[in-house]
Design brief:
This protein has 100 residues and is mostly helical. It is flat, with a radius of gyration of 15 Å. The chain contains five helices and no strands.
Length: 100
């Protein structure tokens, strides 16, 4: 799905017709895995690369479409939890912010 050079209206239509159905299908599955682990992360044993990957994806998507996480607040909370880990918090507070 190439969006470069398209109008804002085309981008919004593409978002609603292509991206949102994928969100509606996959986000509840992610939330179920998160809840089933019981650890606050995606695996019972604790934080893993999966948590970092999903947290970073959520952070990026939240910059473009924060309304997504009004319905899927568990994923935003997970992102905040990962980014609050002491090993990451200091780095994340000092790194250059990427404009959305």
């Amino acid at each position: 799905m190439v969006l470069a050079g398209r109008s804002e209206e085309d981008k919004e239509t593409c978002f609603k017709e292509k991206f949102m159905p994928a969100v509606e299908k996959s986000y509840p599955i992610l939330i179920r895995y998160l809840k089933d682990s019981g650890s606050g992360f995606f695996f019972k044993s604790g934080v893993s690369w999966v948590d970092f990957f999903i947290a970073n994806t959520v952070l990026s998507l939240n910059g473009f479409h924060p309304e997504l996480f009004e319905k899927y607040k568990e994923l935003k909370e997970h992102c905040d939890r990962v980014h609050s880990l002491p090993q990451l918090k200091n780095y994340l507070e000092k790194r250059e912010k990427t404009p959305f």
